[in-house]
Specification:
The chain is an alpha+beta fold. Strands 1, 2, 3, 4, 5, 7, 9, 11 and 12 form a 9-stranded antiparallel beta sheet that branches. Strands 6-10-8 form a 3-stranded antiparallel beta sheet, with no helix packed on it. The longest helix is centred in the N-terminal third of the chain and has 17 residues. The radius of gyration is 17 Å and the shape is globular. The structure holds 2-oxoglutaric acid (AKG). The site of 2-oxoglutaric acid has 7 residues, from strand 5 and strand 10. 2-oxoglutaric acid binds next to strand 5 and strand 10.
Length: 262
Amino acid sequence: MVSEFFESGDVFASTLSIARLRTEGFVVLPAFTGMSDLVRLNSAARVQLNEARGRLELEADLQYPGAPHSRSGVGGGTIRRLLDANARDPSFCQAATALPVRRWMEEYFGADVYMSRAHHNCLMTKHPEFGSLTGWHRDARYWSFTRPDLVSVWLALGEERVENGALWFVPGSHRIEFAAERFDGAQFFRSDLQDNQDLLSTAVSPVLQPGDAVFFHCNTLHSAGKNLTDSVKLSLVFTYHGAGNSPVPGTRSAAKSELALS
Ligand SMILES: O=C(O)CCC(=O)C(=O)O
């Protein structure tokens, strides 16, 4: 099947968005997915969510604020992430490996591109009521690569805004070196410190329309709130790095082989 993914966005003129990502740590690429692909992705996502097969991460397992207390309690079966997304449906794999993604990443990294199957690579959900909020963090906190230079693509399958738990980002935070004490034991950015509060007051939450994508650096501080609407929010998330930046052997980052895009 010839990919028509992302033809609607002018991503081949990627230089500006790459410059923005380097400066801000994130960049929104509007209408990144064409309508027919978006329809396909959404129907595949609903099937996956209903079937709830394969490797799943439940809200109850994470115990983030607002999560059900246990798997056996009320809402205990609420799914947060359906893992191994690239292998779940051909449309997901196509989205993850689409030519415009590859070209953008090749230009950004200046190297051949690999997708991590160990990190993200998921259909991310945010359910009403039992979907938890995610505190301020850097994705690189638990990742082990030669260097922390990876970029994730977050593809909105529906509208994302503050009310349904959209992402928040701190512009430029990927370029800041923080002392270890600015994070708590679980590597969340502490909100009890004045310096941290000052920085977090600069955060923004871009509204995403269905089919928009936000690309963000693995060191960009980000968070997300609860879903206060009555519809589940669905997004596909994939993470990329350049050749020469490898997962450290023996770590979780090396637990699954990489997918070569180039
Ligand atoms: O949707 C959310 O709660 C944020 C997810 C997130 O930031 C992550 O998984 O790294």
